Amino acid sequence: MTAGAALRKLMAAGMVAAPGACDPFTAKLIARAGFDAVYLGGNALGLSLAKGQPLVTLTETVSHAAAITRTVDLPLIVDAGAGFGSPAHVHRTVREIESSGAAALHIDDQPYPKSPSYHRGRGGLAPVDEAKARLSVAVKARRDKDFLIIARTDVLRVTGSLEQAIARGKDYAALGIDALMILDLEPAQVAAVQAALPGLPLVWIGGVVPPVPSVTDLKAAGFALSVYPFNTIAAIAESVSSLWATVRDTGKIPQSDALLKRMRPELSEIAGLRIYWDIEDELSGDRT
What we know:
The protein is of the alpha/beta class. The chain is 51% helix and 12% strand. The protein folds into two domains: 3-237, TIM Barrel; 255-288, no CATH class. An eight-stranded parallel beta barrel has the order 1-2-3-4-5-6-7-8, surrounded by eight helices. Helix 5 (87-99) runs parallel beside helix 6 (128-141).
């Protein structure tokens, strides 16, 4: 079963929650926590590179996606931004991300190139015909029919109009997309979208601005998939900053002896060193 087919099967059984990873290590932690899918958001990837999403390249995105799919068996959903260029560029974007082993990608209707000021509330919209051209090419570019093409629209955030978001959703659905992501769509608004677009799976993206709906609330509202682009990178920043700020101020590592003792073997296990230990032991005849 391909990654896309696996994700479709999961979504058919109920809403899939896909926490965001920014590298193979965080993807492994998400898998160990028991989730069925993982998400690679553009902003988390950009922040992990200390650059930010608007400066992320297709090459960086594909490299990280491939590293994650080599590390965990979970279906991976990838943020492809606005497709990294013109419709011709979108074709290559789909081919490259699909070849990374990912299960799905989403393409948005923001202008390209994306302004760094997007992340201080100055987002915009591409003309609808331009956005439709991207998605039309994307749908045709995939080699595996089960690879999911998700359309993301920022209309609701930019205009505040659910009606305009639904109108764009209808335009995009007519192109053969597999799911629709409406930025800032709240659980209470899902029924109106489903009535206008029956049968089209809806994807929630959030966890950035509070209050954050619970997974239970998102399931009850009727979302097919939820992705969390920001929470993992926020947790890393908080934890690492707190650790070393304490050392700076006190000179002492604020980690218990029990934590350090537990983490040495646990991190080796997370990294997959057991596979290589077993190889060495078998070759050496060490069965202990």
